[in-house]
Write a structure and sequence with these properties.
Layout (H helix, E strand, L loop, with lengths): L2 H25 L3 H4 L8 E2 L2 E2 L7 H24 L1 H6 L9 H25 L10 H26 L4 H24 L8
Antiparallel strand pairs: 1-2
Helix pairs in contact: 1-3, 1-7, 3-5, 5-6, 6-7
Length: 192
């Protein structure tokens, strides 16, 4: 199987976990968790640490959903040759639930430094600063979660440089596409 297809297979649990999260937001499921900010309302220099949009619901949905999709991949890996050949990770040696937690948790954690920086620059959630700084933050918004996933991966499995590069390219396509879907669903005001 071509490397690009294997990278897509590697990323699929995170992409599907994100789709589940979008659905949960749209359907307003777990509304109590949506009102609990990850930063607990804490401030730094008089500004929110992460803001109201980074909530416990995101973690409570993204991480378990990603774990479920990884468990499905591991099950396919153990029963079908095509899934074994598609997988870049060896589920005979890697614990699937841990791998899913690393991927989903890395996705969530990767977004936090960017949110912190925006709050400290008084950029409202969903907004961006004007000019060149806005372009920089747009670019960071596209890859921040990937950087978290890659950092988490290194705890369990070191992806080859070609895999990391292809994941970056995939992210630059998928992330804006998901943002477009969220705009169409009325969950975001704009793509970037």
């Amino acid at each position: 199987m071509m490397l690009a297809g294997r990278v897509l297979w590697l990323a699929l649990p995170v992409v599907l976990g994100g789709a589940v999260h979008v659905g949960v937001i749209k359907l307003d499921w777990l509304p109590t968790l949506a009102r609990v900010p990850l930063d607990g309302g804490a401030t730094f220099r008089g500004r929110r640490v992460l803001g109201a949009n980074k909530t416990v619901r995101g973690v409570a949905v993204m991480v378990p959903a990603t774990i479920v999709f990884v468990l499905a991949q591991a099950l396919l890996f153990r029963h079908y040759a095509w899934a074994r050949s598609a997988s870049l990770v060896d589920f005979d040696r890697l614990r699937p639930a841990l791998w899913g937690a690393v991927l989903g948790g890395g996705y969530v954690a990767g977004e936090l430094p960017n949110s912190f920086a925006k709050r400290q620059l008084a950029v409202p959630p969903g907004g961006r600063p004007p000019g060149g700084l806005g372009i920089l933050f747009w670019l960071i918004d596209q890859v921040d979660s990937l950087l978290g996933v890659l950092a988490g991966m290194w705890l369990v499995w070191a992806p080859p440089v070609a895999v990391a590069a292809l994941l970056c390219g995939l992210t630059l396509i998928v992330h804006p596409a998901v943002a477009l879907v969220m705009v169409k669903l009325g969950l975001k005001r704009r793509i970037g």
